[in-house]
Amino acid sequence: MRKALLYLIIFASLCAVSGYGIDYHVNNKLNHQSPYYLSFASIGAISLESRLDCWAKINQELSQDELETKFVKVLKDLGMARSIEKIIKTDKEYGHHISYTVQSKEITYVFSAETDSDKNETYFLLNVVSTDPGYELSGIEEKLSNGDLNWHYYYLYTGKLDHYVDQESRNQLIDVILQNVGAGSSEIYEDQYMTSITAYTPLFENSVTVQNKKYNIQVAAKSTPQQQGALIYIGQPLIIGDY
After folding, report:
1. What's the rounded Cα separation, in Å, for the pair 154 and 216?
2. Contact 49, 131 (CB under 8 A)
3. From residue 62, how far is each of 12, 85, 97, 123, 179 by CA, in Å?
4. Could you give all domains of the chain from N- to C-terminal order, each with its CATH number?
5. Which residue has the higher pLDDT, 73 or 86?
6. Inter-axis angle of helices 35-42 and 167-180, to 10 degrees?
7. How far apart are CA 141 and CA 151, in angstroms?
8. Distance CA 216, CA 209 (A)
9. pLDDT tier at 7 (50, 70, 90 boundaries)?
10. What gap in Å lies between CA 95 and CA 112, rounded to an integer?
């Protein structure tokens, strides 16, 4: 009887430990999920694409050699300097231009730099587009922080719902996403087929100030009766370009 009781105690202890291990593993995995991925999941949307546009400026026109040296240094910071021979160099009327493109099945990198003799400035631009939901764009920001350029980062995450959503539903979907990241709605723009809300959340460090107001997240939902579904956009700190 004592031996059976001992077995039961050991079995119960193992179950408790196993349960704790499973719960810890699940919670740990969720805690490391991207807030954008979780936001899409919370409204039943699938992730289509993540995009990073970042740029830096030097208040000086670099020479061709200086531009190439700085360009290669950034590639090394990104771990992308294995095929330097793919760099394309051209001279334009206003200055020098360098570009480099790397494309795989799910990720595309386009890096370029150019000088402007009229303004006596040099610009660097990096664009990364990924269709892999598990790819963390923030890793690029961490790598670029090792260099000496002052980069500005704009993220855009695109998701899709497989059904049409009307104006009221668009507002509700955006409210759910903003609540998930701890943001309250601030500025709202909407028309018949699109709703866009900009807000601020302490979850993200970088922000922009417009008319003395701070923003660091913009969420938009777009849907027309002709579309096969609705598109959801999450921009951080704002959405740039057309959508």
Report:
1. 10
2. yes
3. 70, 21, 11, 10, 46
4. 52-153 (3.30.310), 162-236 (3.30.360)
5. 73
6. 140
7. 8
8. 9
9. very low
10. 13
